[in-house]
UniProtKB/TrEMBL annotation, chains A, B:
Record InterPro entries: TR_Rrf2-type_CS, Tscrpt_reg_Rrf2, WH-like_DNA-bd_sf, WH_DNA-bd_sf
Record's protein name: BadM/Rrf2 family transcriptional regulator
An MF annotation (GO) of this entry: DNA-binding transcription factor activity
GO CC annotations on file: cytosol
Organism, scientific name: Saccharopolyspora dendranthemae
Parts forming coiled coils: none
DNA sequence: GGTCCGGTACTCGGATATACGATGTCCGAGTGCTATGGG
DNA sequence: CCCATAGCACTCGGACATCGTATATCCGAGTACCGGACC
């Protein structure tokens, strides 16, 4: 799995805590974790294309959440970065070679079916957890976190 | 996900149908689907290292299932090829940069926790399905499949 | 005829190339702010 | 003092390098079979 997913979720969390009053530039989001700014920007673009963030150009521009954190699931974020296609790609090798029965059977590939079943369980679990859920979990462990984030983004000039 | 997983599962299915009386060379398993023999061999080696297959060198050598198909889960095969580590690797970026609170908090990374939860659902689903299950599903759709496989592996000289 | 032995062909196993996608970087287009000059 | 306007700095967006891993290939080590020679 892409490392960008981790960056994206963390950034969404921060954006949730910062509220959507102001837009936050990619460079600043990157600075918070000392990530390569240009590359994080690429991931944020993907989130914007997926409708999870809105982007604004020019001074005072940047990114902000396109909808409330309760409406953004982990599945949304992962799909935006990793793509919608399933991880297991069935290439139908059962129809290759002289082994094939000749009939392009309409029966589905059972292996594909089984893998998909597992992947759906994964997707369902991801879809059941929102950015808001994670945010509140973090706050449960350290209630100061949101305030500390806001402070950092306000103070730091970089 | 690795393409080798698809090859490995298909090969395990064929080995299940062929029984473990005789060993089957990688070249023959590859020929069945016209796959690159040397590369499939690599995947089979991984299965052997994981204890799913046993390998025999020399003439009349090859691979065979190390235990009955009911005892081999999809999880076993996927883990053998893809590795045991989780797909989502948490690099703890929350502890990078001036953003860190300084305390290497003992609280787990919530994002990591959420991703792991989804991944466990995936693993659980994979672990619940065995090679035998898939074999019997295929037989349900086309009862001639096992016999056709045995025939091909008996007849073909390549 | 039976048994031992050397040669041979076969198979796995790992070391070695190659291609493609993830990772990382850079520059151009667009946009809002700001300062300056005129009314 | 207020407004128009030109310049500028900032930001995204996508085009361009670089690196690592999955993919693919090749050759060496070991082993069982087969044929022949010897007892």
């Amino acid at each position: 799995m892409n490392e960008g997913v981790e960056w994206a979720v963390h950034s969404c969390l921060n954006l949730a805590w910062l509220g959507d009053e102001r837009a936050v530039p990619a460079a600043k989001l990157a600075g918070f974790y000392e990530l390569p700014a240009a590359y994080l920007n690429k991931q944020l673009q993907a989130l914007a294309r997926a409708g999870i963030l809105t982007s604004t150009s020019g001074p005072r521009g940047g990114f902000r959440l396109a909808r409330p954190p309760e409406k953004i699931t982990l599945m949304d974020v992962v799909a935006a970065i990793e793509g919608e296609e399933e991880a297991f790609r069935c290439t139908e090798i059962r129809h290759r070679g002289g082994s094939d029965s000749g009939v392009r059977s309409k029966t589905p590939c059972e292996i594909h079916t089984s893998m998909r079943k597992a992947e759906l369980a994964w997707r369902r679990e991801l879809a059941s957890q929102t950015i808001a859920d994670i945010a509140s979990s973090v706050e449960g462990h350290s209630s100061a976190a949101p305030e500390r984030v806001r402070r950092w983004f306000d103070d730091t000039r970089t």
